[in-house]
Amino acid sequence: MRGDANEHSTASRAVEPDDGDAIIEFDRVTKSFGDTAVLHGIDLAVRRGEFLTIVGRSGCGKTTLLKMVNALEYPDSGRVLVNGEEVKESNRVELRRSIGYVIQSVGLFPNMTVGRNVAYVPRLTRAWSKEQERDEVARLLTTVGLEPAIAPRYPNELSGGQRQRVGIARALAAKPLIMLMDEPFGAVDEITRRSLQDELLNLQRRLGLTILLVTHDIREALKLGDRVLVMEGGRIAQLGTPDELVSYPADAFVEELIGG
Ligand SMILES: Nc1ncnc2c1ncn2[C@@H]1O[C@H](COP(=O)(O)OP(=O)(O)OP(=O)(O)O)[C@@H](O)[C@H]1O
């Protein structure tokens, strides 16, 4: 999708919510917490198989936007649709199981081995037989660049980068079509971060995943995103390909972000 000649040619044009290929749609979504308005009428369509990165200052509403996709937050007005179905009307448990969610801080279950962590959702849904479980866990650990031999270890016996990889393997185990990632590489060193980014890009292309990834790091957003959503104060400042953002920043805020 990156570099696609059919990509939107204007720098700040949002995809229309009725885009036929959309897997996630936001339709005039607003959200407040008490007196604080956090999202102001967000219109957004994320395409199937798209890697969308979301960037913006702290508190601009990135996490809230992400949480609306897996029903951790609901809009005050407007609609969020996943696969054409309104999130508000969906079965929350099924929806969450079908969407991978990777966040920086709350990671793995500390009292479970790596293997049990990875197999968590398939165990709940009895998707794997006992024999299958060992093979699938090994395959997933290998997929995210880990030795299958770490399966019996506990999370506190791993490095931060290894834990992040296990978190991604756990999310992948549920065979999600959508992955929501909130600062997934925030706590790892620069070299590990780059290698995790590269592996994630490979995985996304190989599996055709739709990924929404929140980051503070504009370089990460430009590297990973087919499109980048820049948020400012609960609004979309710009939505465009990395090239569009760099060549045609929509306003001074985006320009400063890119420049930095
Ligand atoms: N459950 C909540 N109750 C009250 N206020 C909340 C709640 N969740 C978020 N907020 C507020 O909403 C605003 C947006 O929060 P959000 O987490 O979406 O921002 P963010 O862009 O992800 O920030 P950061 O980059 O710091 O994670 C902030 O002012 C935050 O304090």
UniProtKB/TrEMBL annotation:
Residue ranges annotated for the ABC transporter domain, each copy included: 24-258
Keyword Lipid biosynthesis among UniProt keywords: no
Record's keyword terms, sorted: ATP-binding, Nucleotide-binding, Transport
Superkingdom, natural source: Bacteria
Record Pfam families: ABC_tran
InterPro entries: AAA+_ATPase (IPR003593), ABC_transporter-like_ATP-bd (IPR003439), ABC_transporter-like_CS (IPR017871), P-loop_NTPase (IPR027417)
Homology family: Belongs to the ABC transporter superfamily.
PANTHER family from the UniProt entry: OSMOPROTECTANT IMPORT ATP-BINDING PROTEIN OSMV
Protein name (database record): ABC transporter domain-containing protein
Organism: Raoultibacter timonensis
